[in-house]
Every structure is written in C-alpha cells, then in structure tokens.
C-alpha cells in the first residue's frame, strides 16, 4: 500500500503549463527527495499534496492525488482537515509572532484543545522530537522571533509534529540555514522517518544523497526519473539525470 | 559650481523642513502665552476640576470637564463603531475578497474620508437623529449619540485602510504557515495575521481616535453645543472643538477672558492628542514584530 500517490497530474498557472502529467507513488516511512533546477515544478508538485496551490487564484489542476488511497481533490474532502494531517515545513523559517510555547501549541489550540497539562506535554514532546528542547526549555515564554534561524526552523518542525501528521512535506528546509543547523535538521529527518512519511524538495544534491531513500528528478515540469537514491546518483537511466547530478547543468 | 548647486539645494530643503517646525513652535508659543494670561485670572485647579463651563453667561464658570467629557463621549462612540467595522473590513479585504474586488472597494471606502464633514453633520442631524428617535423616544434633537455614530462612519477608512496595509505587509510565508497547519481562514486572519500586524493596527486606531477628538463640524451641527458634564449619549453635549468654533465665530471681544478661554481649551485638546500620540508610539515600540 502506498502512502501517497499522484496520477497524471497536470497543473496550470493561468496559461502556463507547469506540471505535465506527473505520476508517482511513495511508500510509507520513507524519505523522498525532489531535485531539479529552479522552476522545474518540484515545489509546485510538493504543494499539490496539501493543496497549498489552492491559495493561488490562477492555479488549475487535473489528475488525482491519493493519500492512503483517498483522492484529496474530490469535492467532499475538507481541505482544512486534510491539511491538519499533512505537515509542511517551508524554505524560510516562518514561526508565528508568538512565544515558543504558543507556536508549538498553535495546531492544538486551533483544534480547540485547552487542557493545560496536555498542551504542556505535547509541546515538550514535540520540541524534544525536533531536538530543540534542551536549547529552549527555560525560555518557552520568549518570542519565537528571538531564536536563531536554525532554531526557528526546528521550531517550525516541532510545530508541525505537535499535531501528529502522517506526512511531512519539506520545501527546501535547509536552504536558509548554516551547515551546523543543516546537519541537525538532516539528522532529525533521519529519525522522523520511523514515524512519518517525508517528502522534501532540495537544491542540495549531497543532502538528497545523504537523507533520502528515493529521489525524483524534475525538469521543465516533467518527472524525468524516479528511483532509489543510490541508483539516481550512481547509475541513472536517463542522460539528463546523469548530467544534472554530476553538475553538468542546472 | 556643482558644489554651490548642491549647497543651495540643501539650503532650500532645510527651509522647507523648518517651515513646519516653526509653524508648530509658533502655535505652541501663542497657545502658551494666551493660556498663561488666562490662568492669571482663572485658577488652574478650577479649570481642570470644575464641572460647569459657562464663559458666555452672566455668571462665568470655567471648568473644562464638561467639554472633555463631551469630547471623550463622542470619540468613544465613534471608536465603538469604527473599530469593529474597520477591522472586519480590513480582514475581509485581506483574507477573503479577491484582488479585483479589493481594487474597487478600497478606494471607494477611502471616499468616506473625503466627504466634507459638514455634510456628515447634516446627515447626522436630519437623518440619523430622526431614525434613532423612532427607536429611542427620549433622545433629544441634538445628541452625542448620532454625532458619535456618524463620526464613527467617517473614521472607518482610517482604521480599515491602514489596518489592511498592515495586514498586507505581513510576510506571505506566515499566511502559508497558518494554512499549512490546517487553519481556517478565520483562524488565519485572527490568530496569525492580526497579531502579526498588531503594531500597524494599533497605530491606525490611535490615528482614528486623534481624528475623532479633533473633529468639529459633525458635533457642532448635530450634538447641540451645550456644555454638560454627562456621559449620557442621549443628551446634547459640547466638545472642546465646537466650543472653540463657537467663540471664534461669535461676538466675543478680543483679549477678553472669554476669548482667552479658547486658548486654554485649545491647549487641553493639544494635550489630549499629544498623550495619544505618545501612547501610539509606545505601543508601536512594544508590539512591533521584527521580520527579516
């Protein structure tokens, strides 16, 4: 059984044909990396899984996206409820202008949970999972905006984990971070794999090779190749993939 | 040659800037001198604690509180109208309306601020008051309520437009984070966007309050020009501004004590708005969120 499945996705921004017939199946508890040059559609495709493209007026989408076998673009799906099950971490850390505690508790609060003990436990557990607890446990009341970029990004991951989604989408989660923070986040991704299905977009080829199980190479809105990560990096089937991963273009 | 040109441009710019500074200084100096003259004859204590204001009657009493109460009452009513409506409009325009609709509605709203206030005054007197009298029979013909309500409508664009600007300035990434967490539009707007824009929203509200405190024509026409120390919105009242108009237009001889009383009233008004400006500055500092 696949966790995520895309079937012949066509996506348009106004007149622009941004995704051309993409099909892909992702197994649970794996890390999948999307690579490809800027503008190739990998972020756009990632955002299909939690219907973030809905926020763009001119965006039109055809095809099916199945999560646990259920098509999320069918009308009877409640988008808001759906997004609660799919966590997302963005390129730039985007904590809310609230305290560290309230950031992590946000997802629970919007679900109407007010039980203080439960909130505290969840916040601690999530921060521990995101490897941030030891650094912030004494200043949970401090504004999240006072944290460093790397800490903010781990806070955003903790915020996502608090509502226990089954899938986590990451859109270049380390591109704004320094090497040490990047290493921490990568380590984290590795651990999270046991509980979650992770899909990440990255521009960093080494990162894709280090953390992912499967890699998908996108080019000009098409899925060129999708295979086990070692295969993509050492023995790709397509020449374009070979050229990209060896740094000959892109 | 180039240097002389640069210097003369600089001198011209300094001159322009200094005009505003000197105007402000001039106003403060004149206000202070006349107020000082006024307080040689009227005790400061009586002025700030007296509850009767009758400079134009035979028995003259100079207690500013009725005018302050009238000003605060109409301002309070106006804000009670403008704050919820203005914020709702700002949130609607920012979170719900599509871009084309927003491009039409926002300028239309700003027209509200461009209507001459005397027109608002007559609207309050000849339309709002009669309608309200059908609901509240005890409402007097001139009253603080309809003046305040109409004033509230007038300052809606101050709140809605500036708050919407503040909401628009919130980084897109924050909205995406909110939706990504599974927030509804309402939750996104009120739990994430508004708190993030709070400093701008607060400034917009303080600006609206300052505008309401300084508003003259609406209250002059519709509120009755009767200085009463009351917080009952159904009665006629007088504000600081309308008193100043009343005296400036009327038959009061220059340099008399009655004449000087408008300067004392003026400096009180100045003090009120000055305090508000400082509160807004302090709030802005305190709640400002820093984004990269």
TrEMBL record, chain A:
This is Phosphate ABC transporter ATP-binding protein, PhoT family. Its main location: membrane. The keyword Nucleus does not apply. The keyword Transmembrane does not apply. SMART domains: AAA. It comes from the Bacteria. Keywords: ATP-binding, Cell membrane, Membrane, Nucleotide-binding, Phosphate transport, Translocase, Transport. Pfam families: ABC_tran. It is found in: Cell inner membrane. One of its GO terms (cellular component) is plasma membrane. One of its GO terms (molecular function) is ATP hydrolysis activity. InterPro entries: AAA+_ATPase, ABC_transporter-like_ATP-bd, ABC_transporter-like_CS, P-loop_NTPase, PstB-like. GO terms for biological process: phosphate ion transmembrane transport. It is a peripheral membrane protein. Part of the ABC transporter complex PstSACB involved in phosphate import. Responsible for energy coupling to the transport system. Residues 4-245 form the ABC transporter domain.
UniProtKB/TrEMBL annotation, chain B:
It holds the Pfam family BPD_transp_1. It comes from the Bacteria. Residues 68-280 form the ABC transmembrane type-1 domain. GO terms for cellular component: plasma membrane. One of its GO terms (biological process) is phosphate ion transport. One of its GO terms (molecular function) is phosphate transmembrane transporter activity. Belongs to the binding-protein-dependent transport system permease family. CysTW subfamily. It is found in: Cell membrane. It is a multi-pass membrane protein. The keyword Ion transport does not apply. It comes from Solitalea koreensis. Part of the binding-protein-dependent transport system for phosphate; probably responsible for the translocation of the substrate across the membrane. Keywords: Cell membrane, Membrane, Phosphate transport, Transmembrane, Transmembrane helix, Transport. This is Phosphate transport system permease protein. The chain crosses the membrane at residues 12-33, 64-87, 108-129, 135-159, 192-213, 262-283.
